[in-house]
């Protein structure tokens, strides 16, 4: 019985933690969506708020099945939870294999997506903050180079562009100075007109596609560890769910074998908690 309780409550705690996290993600996404009075960007891949809502809602539903199924010993919900986790695990493995086998195609599609994000920069506050974070974190600018920002109407390098930021780049591309306390938001003005050697003194010239790839190679052990940890966690939760289902089936089998005695006991009570007499059955063996 101790083994069953350990499996049950370990699965419940794990699902409950992710259930709370998913509720927070969904709430943040909904708040961000409401805070943006008028959305221009309304696609799943380019709207961080919408992405949070979708991912958080999916996690909320899946972890709710695990929480309620584990707590109430409901095999139907546990089987649904188990099936979804197995499907997610297989999809992750398949995505990894496809990404490895078709690296060029994946990189091309990623480049197109990042270019769309640059074009829609300033149209969505969340997207703008996400791009600024990526450029500062990975010390990069644009997709392939800093001149990619000419695709944006605000930074387009044309004589007919009335924007003050024409031929410039966002401030997140700028190389930070040591002991700098005041952020110079105009540091990227006009850098697209400079050669790469000259522009490199003020802004990052490497593209974010290459910057992210270099960071992943440099921190290969960290990336591999996080990926392996996530997969291991999913495998553990799958094992816990399968273990609890097996225990429930075993208890049901024992109950069916001792049905005559249980019928006589049920006449004296209208309420029977789940597995209340499981200890007696185990001890009798």
From TrEMBL:
Q: Which Cys pairs are S-S linked?
A: 141-157
Sorted alphabetically, which keywords does the UniProt record give?
A: Cell junction, Cell membrane, Cytoplasm, Disulfide bond, Glycoprotein, Membrane, Transmembrane, Transmembrane helix
Query: GO terms for biological process?
Result: pore complex assembly; protein localization to plasma membrane; protein maturation
Query: Where does it reside?
Result: Cell junction, Adherens junction; Cell membrane; Cytoplasm; Membrane
Q: Name one GO molecular function term.
A: enzyme binding
- A GO CC term? plasma membrane
InterPro entries from the xrefs? Tetraspanin/Peripherin, Tetraspanin_animals, Tetraspanin_EC2_sf
How is this protein positioned relative to the membrane? Answer: Multi-pass membrane protein
Instruction: Locate the transmembrane regions by residue number.
Output: 9-30, 50-71, 80-102, 220-242
Q: Which family does it belong to?
A: Belongs to the tetraspanin (TM4SF) family.
List the protein's name. Tetraspanin
This protein's gene is called zgc:113223
